[in-house]
What we know:
This protein has helices at about 5-15, 100-115, 125-130, 135-145, and strands spanning about 25, 35-40, 50-55, 70. It is of the alpha+beta class. Strands 1-2-3-4 form a 4-stranded antiparallel beta sheet. α3 (about 125-130) packs across α4. The radius of gyration is 16 Å and the shape is globular.
Amino acid sequence: MAALPKRITKEIERLIKDPVPGIIAEPHEDNLRYFDVVIAGPTQSPFQGGEFKLELFLPEGYPMEPPKVRFLTKIYHPNIDKLGRICLDILKDKWSPALQVRTVLLSIQALLSAPNPDDPLDNNVAQHWKDNEKDAIATATAWTQQYALPASK
């Protein structure tokens, strides 16, 4: 594998030395562009108490192009589809090379705290959220209990 750009090396060092609260991001030993990520479900959200596994990959074009990120843990969220893809502007058209892996992870954590059914990736979940938010939150909480509890590993 080609040597990593200095920028990626610095980001990895910072993630290890100064981890983001509630987020673990560890690069694979055999491919430092590929990270195993665990995001703790934010308090005061239907995802509280859950540990959500994600994969994050830094493409060759990084930082000029955004990282590829997806959820591996099932989650009931209007901005995350059944394949784990995430609808987040900074992963698409609002990406900037000034952003870093930690910024992306913090943004995903914030998305868990504030689902946005008006910009959905899963239209059925978004419609459920709009039609009956209380019931959608109950479903999201049940999915967290079923799929994301630390004991369910």
